[in-house]
Amino acid sequence: MPAQDFAGRTVADHVEAFTSGKVAARDIVEGLLERTKRAEPFNPIATLDAEGARAAADALDARRKAGGSFGALAAVPVSAKDLILTKGLRTAFASVTMKDNVPSIDAEAIAQWRGADAVLFAKTTTPEFGHKVLTDSPLHGITRNPWNREHTSGGSSGGAAVSVALGLGPIAMSTDGAGSGRIPAACCGVYGLKATLGRVPHEVPPDQFGQLTYLGVMARHPGDLGAGLASMSRGHRDDPWTLAIGREPFAWPDDSGEHPIAGRRITVIRRMTGGYLDPDTEARLDAALAFLDKKGAHIKEMDGREIDWKLDVARIILRANQIERFADILKNRRDDLDPSFARTLEEGNAVDVVALRRALVDRTTAFKSVQRLFADCDLLLTPTVATPAPLASQNQFEPLVVDGKPLGDLRAAWYTYTIPFNMTGHPAISIPFGRSKAGLPIGIHFVAPWYAEAHLIKLAQAFDAETGASAEFPPGFAAGA
Question: Half-sphere exposure (CA, 13 Å, Cβ side) for 278?
Fold first, then answer.
């Protein structure tokens, strides 16, 4: 069958082309697989399932010939981060210790995408067990930024961001534990959404009541975030956060009729803790403020140091959960682990019960602090990260260095903006908004009240109409090229 390069087209474009009979699902898949080969130097794919994707496409084509009906993601090629369980397809967690792991079940969100007739073609790269915001691992190597291979893709959903940026499917499923979906989206120039706690089922983690990790969506076109989210937001009996009385799955498109910008009260926080902000990043933030002002938003700024964001709380809870889950691997297979993951687990070993008890209380304090902010505004706006993507050689435990000057701990210097909202449950989005003088993408970060994902997506659409970001491709990967 002739391959069809659908890179750059929306979810709706894929579905319409297939269901109308204009193109076969197999043709879409063959075009996608050819493009995947060209992406290999950037290393976004952990496990490619070419034959599985072809078989799924052939089944869809047969059903269409038989006059069957289809789901909302019919013939849409999708990928999923290598931390998300996929039945019959290797889920290695980027770890040598799990390199032969083939799950017998799908994660519920994957099952929902498959039920909507999406075609899963690959698992995307991540650091080992998703433990850091840089995407490299002993099993899969370094995943590189599609705009400059010398720089990181960000993490831990780096492979997902690179895949979307290079046109390997219109949407990808990510995870986000402290910004792991939004950070690489900003680094790679795509849209990344972390939904409200409980919007998307995430029934796999052992601590359901204390988890900080969310399944999310990355996309080139902001409206496709809504399409992906709508097809993965039914509840699951084993995720208590999805069981709210009267809860309905996310519905998209949103027909509220409310303008996403005009009249909105937006609180801007340039620096969460008073640290460094890259001049190019700050310039793009100022440009975003000018755009918002032109569109009728009511803007005020606040000093992030007025809020105790409890940033160490997320680290303590994450580390406690990680050591509980992976203590046996650290004990028995330490030499097989990424040294930075072993060090991360050692941090978990050092968390005592008093510190954990305090952190659980402080998580509620952080939630209430953010709720008070929303009493006086409709949206929060920050940079996504303090600088464009660092070099691919950046070490998780070494200082962030800019222009030869060490800025301190990577976590404190680079990605304080995303961490609080994993604790508080609020939905958040990274929106691509231009590039640095060196050509690296820059993202801005909006946070909304609980269950306001539709507002964030409509806001992203308004920005995309201004910037045309959804039409931009890294050099050599333009649609149809």
Answer: 27
